């Protein structure tokens, strides 16, 4: 445990130093007015690591470039007068909210939304627009370079170790005689398998086709899970354990997996034989990009991209667009000093789900209040700017270890107030900032409650409906004589819906359906692959 904590501290420290160094360099190259774009660039690069953009590098880079430049131009136009601010800020935030919020995957709107609000807070004139556009172009390039370095061949780099871990868990489960330990091992198995499925899902070709190696990994997970489920039906568990240990040894020592059939016992059990066959397919990398996508699947993918006004994404986009648009209009029209703090607060607290907005609002108020008291006391007692700067850096470092939004807001408030005072701000200015933050809290609460609210209960109903439809598609695909290549994709989607429903504590309602899907899928794959 101590070793894990040490690794975490080292990892967080290195990341923190890299981020600070990157922002300092970004500021030096693109100027003070674009420093915050450096912050959102590194934020975006780190957040997008969970998505694999290397499957279509050129297209994703072009989309990032167009989006960044477009937002830069829109923020400039919005700064010309309050009416344009109302229109262009609504459009920009709507686009960001709609495109980058998702039903079954983690949202990605934060770096783009924060970047846009930063550009509103620190506007540039026409002469400074050129440098701002350059910084946004660099941002797009940097995100894609990080993707190519980290996510190239992501399925192989992260998938094979995940398979090895799942085999280890299966071995331990077969050896275990403790029911409580069995449950823990199965939960661990499901946790690793869902992460693997997410990696495969986020590495799809053409946004809907899973590569051959990804399909093989999904099937390996299914067969290993089946072994876990029928543990008490297996008579010769020792044979399974020995065979799985040898398979893992082959993986660990990077032996030629095509010789797996030489392992004793492999041919005596159908499931072990299928697993070894699938592992051999993984090593045969020359087939990983050889796929034919049916026109039916292409057309289904296109038809899924519809504009649904009742969806969570649409409602969130409208809500964030209206609140930021109207608030920026008020700030510009009345020329409110430090009005940017109201916008930052609104962006942080307007959430896709109403309940999350309420929770964040309470935590924001608590964190801001506690952070303000600490900052006022601390910076009243210590007047040396050097020591104050060290405090701010230390607080920024501690922020990387925060566990709750409330803790984060304590650190952020201390840093913001401290930086303001060091740069010559007065306690009156800081008080004005806190008032604007609280005004932002009030506007956010009103927006979350009255502007097309979307509750967790709404999400549950939608997800259960999606789950039922997806289950039907899986069964139809299994029983259809004309397969269109969508089965593995559909199976992963069902797993992602399950994960989202578990987050909402809604697992019992789909428990039976989950087992039905697993049984249907496993029976079909066993028949096809044996």
From TrEMBL:
<keyword id="KW-0472">Membrane</keyword>
<feature type="transmembrane region" description="Helical">
    <location>
        <begin position="36"/>
        <end position="53"/>
    </location>
</feature>
<keyword id="KW-1133">Transmembrane helix</keyword>
<feature type="transmembrane region" description="Helical">
    <location>
        <begin position="409"/>
        <end position="427"/>
    </location>
</feature>
<dbReference type="GO" id="GO:0016020">
    <property type="term" value="C:membrane"/>
</dbReference>
<feature type="transmembrane region" description="Helical">
    <location>
        <begin position="60"/>
        <end position="77"/>
    </location>
</feature>
<feature type="transmembrane region" description="Helical">
    <location>
        <begin position="369"/>
        <end position="397"/>
    </location>
</feature>
<feature type="transmembrane region" description="Helical">
    <location>
        <begin position="316"/>
        <end position="335"/>
    </location>
</feature>
<dbReference type="Pfam" id="PF13515">
    <property type="entry name" value="FUSC_2"/>
</dbReference>
<feature type="domain" description="Integral membrane bound transporter">
    <location>
        <begin position="326"/>
        <end position="446"/>
    </location>
</feature>
<dbReference type="InterPro" id="IPR049453">
    <property type="entry name" value="Memb_transporter_dom"/>
</dbReference>
<feature type="transmembrane region" description="Helical">
    <location>
        <begin position="130"/>
        <end position="150"/>
    </location>
</feature>
<feature type="transmembrane region" description="Helical">
    <location>
        <begin position="434"/>
        <end position="456"/>
    </location>
</feature>
<feature type="transmembrane region" description="Helical">
    <location>
        <begin position="9"/>
        <end position="30"/>
    </location>
</feature>
<protein>
    <submittedName>
        <fullName>Inner membrane protein YccS</fullName>
    </submittedName>
</protein>
<feature type="transmembrane region" description="Helical">
    <location>
        <begin position="83"/>
        <end position="101"/>
    </location>
</feature>
<keyword id="KW-0812">Transmembrane</keyword>
């Amino acid at each position: 445990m101590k070793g894990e904590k040490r690794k975490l501290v080292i990892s967080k420290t290195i990341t923190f130093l890299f981020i600070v160094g990157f922002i300092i360099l970004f500021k030096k190259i693109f100027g003070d007015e674009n420093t915050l774009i450096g912050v959102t660039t590194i934020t975006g690069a780190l957040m997008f690591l969970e998505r694999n953009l290397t499957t279509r590098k050129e297209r994703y880079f072009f989309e990032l470039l167009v989006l960044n430049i477009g937002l830069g131009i829109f923020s400039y136009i919005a700064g010309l007068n309050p009416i344009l601010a109302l229109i262009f800020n609504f459009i920009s935030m709507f686009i960001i909210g709609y495109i980058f919020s998702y039903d079954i995957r983690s949202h990605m709107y934060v770096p783009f939304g924060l970047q846009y609000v930063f550009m509103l807070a620190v506007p540039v004139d026409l002469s400074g627009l050129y440098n701002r556009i350059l910084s946004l172009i660099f941002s797009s390039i940097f995100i894609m370079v990080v993707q190519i370095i980290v996510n190239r061949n992501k399925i192989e780099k992260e998938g094979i170790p995940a398979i090895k871990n799942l085999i280890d868990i299966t071995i331990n489960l077969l050896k275990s005689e403790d029911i409580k330990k069995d449950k823990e091992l199965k939960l661990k198995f499901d946790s690793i398998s869902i992460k693997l499925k997410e990696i495969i899902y986020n590495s799809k070709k053409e946004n809907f086709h899973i590569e051959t190696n990804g399909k093989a990994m999904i099937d390996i997970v299914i067969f290993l899970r089946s072994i876990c489920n029928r543990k008490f039906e297996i008579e010769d568990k020792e044979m399974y354990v020995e065979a799985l240990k040898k398979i893992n040894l082959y993986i660990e020592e990077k032996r030629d997996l095509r010789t797996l059939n030489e392992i004793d016992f492999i041919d005596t059990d159908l499931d072990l034989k299928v697993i070894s066959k699938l592992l051999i397919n993984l090593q045969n990398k020359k087939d990983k990009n050889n796929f034919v996508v049916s026109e039916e699947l292409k057309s289904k993918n296109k038809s899924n991209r519809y504009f649904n006004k009742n969806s969570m994404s649409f409602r969130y986009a409208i809500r964030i667009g209206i609140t930021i648009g109207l608030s920026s209009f008020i700030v510009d029209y009345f020329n409110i000093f430090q009005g940017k703090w109201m916008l930052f607060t609104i962006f942080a607290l307007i959430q896709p789900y109403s309940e999350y907005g309420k929770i964040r609002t309470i935590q924001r108020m608590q964190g801001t209040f506690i952070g303000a008291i600490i900052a006022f006391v601390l910076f009243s007692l210590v007047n040396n700017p050097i020591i104050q700067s060290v405090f701010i850096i230390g607080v920024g470092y501690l922020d990387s270890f925060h566990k709750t939004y409330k803790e984060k807001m304590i650190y952020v408030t201390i840093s913001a107030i401290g930086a303001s005072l060091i740069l010559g701000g007065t306690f009156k200015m800081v008080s004005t900032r806190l008032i604007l933050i609280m005004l932002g809290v009030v506007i956010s609460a009103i927006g979350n409650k009255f502007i097309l609210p979307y509750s967790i209960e709404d999400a549950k109903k939608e997800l259960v409906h999606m789950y039922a439809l997806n289950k039907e598609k899986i069964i139809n695909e299994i029983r259809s004589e004309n397969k269109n290549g969508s089965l593995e994709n559909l199976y992963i989607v069902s797993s992602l819906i399950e994960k989202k429903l578990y987050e909402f504590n809604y697992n019992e309602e789909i428990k039976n359906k989950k087992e039905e899907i697993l049984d249907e899928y496993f029976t079909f794959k066993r028949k096809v692959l044996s």
